Automatic annotation (TrEMBL):
InterPro entries listed in its UniProt record: AAA+_ATPase, P-loop_NTPase, PRD, PRD_sf, PTS_EIIA_man-typ, PTS_EIIA_man-typ_sf, PTS_IIA_man, Sigma_54_int
Name of the molecule in the record: DNA translocase FtsK
Record-linked Pfam families: EIIA-man, HTH_IclR, PRD, Sigma54_activat
Domain PTS EIIA type-4 positions: 536-661
Domain (PRD): residue spans on this chain: 427-532, 784-890
Sigma-54 factor interaction domain mapped to chain residues: 74-306
Superkingdom field: Bacteria
Keyword annotations from UniProtKB, A to Z: ATP-binding, DNA-binding, Kinase, Nucleotide-binding, Transferase
Length: 892
């Protein structure tokens, strides 16, 4: 007698269609709960297939009819791919171990699939054993880090580099006795090509850091979207078999139809559901311009299948999954516009009897192991969301529309893959790249100008480092913040808005100085991105290997769109002394271009000592960063191109990449900021300037150091020694001297009131505006934009001070800023303010200053919809009067 579980199985076998537990229970006349238990047991045993949905359904599990792709069932084998297949078979059969091969073709033409067919043929022809490995590796995954790339392919010996704590087998060893498929092989640096053709010539290779040779029997198959011209000539000679795959546009409509049918058949089998596509949709897929070739065709087909699946799950109009014209992406629908162009070719496809092409589950299909479209993730995602939202009692129409948006978003990543290159994705996260593009799209509309991808990428790099710097409490001041605010007021206001969006996305607070840098990016055109300042820190890359340094620098230059930077390749046959001699001769011949100092990036060993030698022999300040990767070179060159000083670049790089490189910790600097007072003509003048500066600044915040600068090189050397432990914010002197990006203030400026005010603005105050905003926001009404309020107050007070020629300590200005901000908040709340004693008399006494101040304050009144009383203005005027600095030691 059969058990109940066997009876459930028999019912499912008798009816291969999907059935619910309740339907099965009704047929058997038993309790639904028991049937559900049997079904779950059968599902675990693999006899029954569970189909997620509303409600959950079950179906007898069919034996897979899949068979692996090979040349015998490859679409185009007798037409567009005939000669390519013949050449590849010859490569596999060539004695003794086949010919190494490279496959050329556009993105999405099926290079990976073709390589798998070559492997299947080798096995079927008994050239390779059935257990022979077929190893695939995408060279683009590690193209920005040659060390890791070599390690993956050839293996790593313990101790080869920091972090290599054990021996690691490479892909060459894993592929021994089989095929190693290297996708995007053009991303292999010249050193990698050299190592590879050494293996091709001798059949031997060395793991990274290992002096002992190893042997392996491996056939190399490479794939590339580039032409053979990108490879070394020696590499081209060693890859005798070159195969070029046609684009989808070059293949016949018959082949394209076969590809469409094959894919839809695969989806029908996986979903165990009949799929029908209407005639116009089929014609659209046959004719549209799929720039990504077969890869894009399959991705677009998967999208419409997902939409058909969603519609089927939310309605009961048809038992089939129906693909209709309305669900096609716009780019596919445009294919119908080409119908008149190819009318004669469409005759065989215009069967008037059949309105739909239908594909039933269970029909034999072929698959290949590397197919990225085989996954069921999108269907599972739809089912999960249907179940979740269904519990929230949303209507079916709302449900389908809501999830349809998600399905479209799911496939948006494909567009990103076409526009966002591999190199970019390796450095910038997708989330940040998406945010930066949205910010620049917004900026383009506001500024009525275009920002190209190079500008956006440079900005993305900047924001990435800014986020890391802020999170690590590393702040960098903008040397020309006030000039930026004055000269680019529109861009500055836009930068504030963009910074707000970045703050929300990453939960950080962006300082005003960083907003200044954002403003610079909004004002730059392509040329300005490449060159912000004529005087820049030089970036030198010195690496072991025939072309390691140049290859790494070229990658970075391409990403940043710049020609800056110098590479020195150090072949293993070249001794250290000779290498240093080359670098020394190069610097001495162009000494003027190194006035701002040198960032020297090295990989390991003796070049780490070059920095000290350069400084002592040529008196050029040099900072060395060892164990450098492409990312370190990228960040160093980016900051140098932006005009940052040597110390800023060095500090920023080592603080961002502390976990990647072994470097000394930056020296902690003294709390007090330093103003250097320098004079060529003697101590008397320097002392006089010291007295003037002492009256202008807060001596609790600033330290004034007198220095004689008659010998300019000696003066620079003292600056170099001092800058490691002191924050030098300005040099005041009688003769102009620019060094280390330290602002220079001519002595004459300290005898002009308007210039003194600019000097004070340059120095800034102890607490930054963003810090004040962050600490005070909670005390204000929610409707008040505190950051905008403080910025406006800052502008108003600057205007008052310049118009009235008031010299006031920055601490007093800061206190007045806070007073004004809270005054606005009190007025908005309707709270009472204290009356000013004898306000009418005070007004008459200071009528000019009073009226000038009242006029400047109208900007705040209009912005926040308030009105300052006579008492309010009197308190502000009195505060300004009480805190003005009377310079008794010199006339102004």
């Amino acid at each position: 007698m059969k058990s109940r579980k066997d009876e459930v199985l028999d019912v499912l076998r008798a009816n291969p269609n999907e059935q619910t537990a309740q339907e099965l229970a009704n047929q058997l006349g038993v309790d639904r709960t028991n049937v559900s238990r049997y079904l779950n047991e059968l599902t675990k045993e693999g006899a029954v297939k569970k189909i997620d949905g509303r409600p959950v359904k079950f179906q007898i599990a069919t034996v897979s009819t899949e068979k692996h792709i090979n040349f015998d069932n490859l679409i185009g084998r007798e037409d567009s791919l005939k000669s390519q297949i013949q050449k590849s078979k010859a490569a596999i059969l060539y004695p003794p171990r086949g010919l190494h091969t490279i496959i050329f073709g556009e993105t999405g033409t099926g290079k990976t699939m073709f390589a798998e067919c070559m492997y299947r043929f080798a096995v079927s022809a008994a050239v390779l054993d059935e257990s022979a490995p077929f190893i695939t590796f995408n060279c683009a995954d590690y193209a920005q880090n040659p060390q890791l790339l070599y390690g993956h392919i050839f293996g790593v010996k313990r101790g080869a580099f920091t972090g290599a704590e054990q021996n690691r087998e490479g892909l060459m060893e894993k592929a021994d006795g089989g095929i190693l498929f290297l996708d995007e092989i053009h991303r292999l640096p010249p050193e990698g090509q050299e190592m590879l053709f050494t293996f091709i010539d001798k059949g031997t290779f060395r793991s990274l850091g290992d002096g002992q040779e190893k042997q392996a029997s491996v056939q190399i198959i490479g794939a590339t979207t580039e032409t053979s011209s990108v490879f070394l000539s020696t590499f081209n000679r060693r890859i005798p078999m070159q195969i070029e795959l046609p684009s989808l546009a070059e293949r016949s409509l018959d082949e394209r139809l076969a590809i469409i049918k094959e894919f839809l058949q695969q989806e029908a089998n996986r979903l165990m559901q009949e799929i029908a596509i209407d005639k116009r949709s089929l014609l659209a897929f046959l004719l549209y311009n799929a720039e990504g070739n077969i890869g894009q065709l399959k991705r677009d087909l998967k999208l419409v299948c997902a939409k058909a699946f969603l519609h089927h799950q939310t309605t009961s109009e048809s038992e089939k999954l129906m693909i209709v014209e309305e669900d096609l992406p716009l780019v596919v629908q445009k294919g119908l516009l080409r119908m008149n162009e190819v009318q004669d070719k469409l005759t065989p496809f215009m069967d008037k009897k059949n309105l739909y092409l239908t594909l039933k589950p269970g029909t034999e299909e072929v698959v290949w192991g590397q197919d990225p479209n085989k996954d069921m993730e999108v269907y599972h995602s739809i089912t999960y969301k249907l179940e979740k939202l269904g519990r929230e009692n949303l209507s079916e129409i709302d449900l389908e529309e809501l999830i349809s948006d998600d399905v479209d978003q799911y496939f948006e990543t494909y567009v990103e893959e076409l526009s966002h290159t591999n190199a970019y994705r390796e450095i910038i996260s997708d989330d940040l790249w998406k945010l930066v593009n949205s910010l620049y799209d917004f900026a383009s509309k506001q500024m009525q100008r275009e920002y190209d991808e190079k500008v956006r990428f440079a900005f993305a790099l900047h924001i990435s480092s800014t986020i890391e710097r802020i999170r690590g409490n590393q702040f960098i001041s903008h040397p020309n913040l006030n000039d930026i605010r004055r000269n680019y007021s529109k861009e500055f206001q836009l930068a504030i808005e963009l910074s707000n969006r970045i703050e929300e996305a990453y939960n950080i607070l962006i300082p005003l100085d960083e907003i200044g840098f954002i403003t610079m990016f909004l004002t730059m055109d392509n040329q300005e991105v490449k060159k912000v300042d004529e005087r820049q820190v030089a970036v030198l890359v010195v690496m072991h290997g025939k072309s390691t340094a140049s290859s790494m620098l070229e990658t970075v230059q391409d990403l940043l769109g710049t020609t800056n930077g110098i590479a020195f390749n150090m072949p293993l046959t070249l001794d250290t002394e000779a290498m240093y001699g080359q670098i020394k001769n190069y610097i001495q011949a162009r000494r003027e271009t190194f006035s701002e100092g040198i960032i020297l990036l090295t990989d390991m060993g003796s070049p780490n000592n070059f920095g000290n030698l350069i400084f002592h022999e040529m008196e050029i300040r040099t900072r060395v960063i060892s164990m450098a990767s492409t990312m370190l070179v990228l960040e160093s060159l980016r900051l140098a191109t932006l005009g940052r000083s040597l110390e800023e670049i060095y500090t920023s790089v080592i603080s961002m990449f502390q976990n990647m490189v072994r470097l000394e910790e930056p020296t902690q600097k003294d709390e007090k900021k330093v103003i250097i007072v320098a004079c060529f003509t003697g101590e008397g003048v320097s002392k006089r300037l010291n007295e003037v500066v002492s009256q202008i600044v807060n001596l609790e915040e600033f330290e004034i150091i007198q220095m004689q600068s008659l010998e300019r090189e000696s003066f620079k050397h003292r600056i170099d020694q001092m800058i490691t432990h002191k924050d030098i914010v300005a040099i005041v002197g009688t003769m102009e001297i620019h060094y280390q990006k330290i602002p220079f203030i001519p002595a004459m400026n300290l005898f002009k009131r308007d210039k003194i005010l600019e000097f004070q603005d340059l120095l800034g105050s102890t607490i930054s505006l963003p810090e004040m905003v962050d600490s005070l926001t909670k005390d204000f009404l929610p409707e008040i934009d505190v950051k905008t309020l403080f910025l406006l107050i800052d502008d108003v007070l600057q205007g008052i001070r310049k118009e009235q020629e008031l010299i006031i300590e920055n601490t007093a200005v800061q206190a007045l800023s806070v007073h004004l901000a809270f005054l606005v908040d009190k007025i908005k709340k309707g709270e009472e303010r204290p009356a000013f004693e004898n306000v009418k008399y005070f007004h008459q006494q200071h009528q000019l200053r009073f009226n000038q101040t009242a006029i400047k304050l109208t900007v705040i009144e209009k912005q926040f919809g308030i009105r300052f009383t006579e008492d309010d203005i009197a308190y502000i005027v009195k505060t300004l009067e009480d805190n003005r600095v009377e310079l008794g030691s010199h006339s102004v």
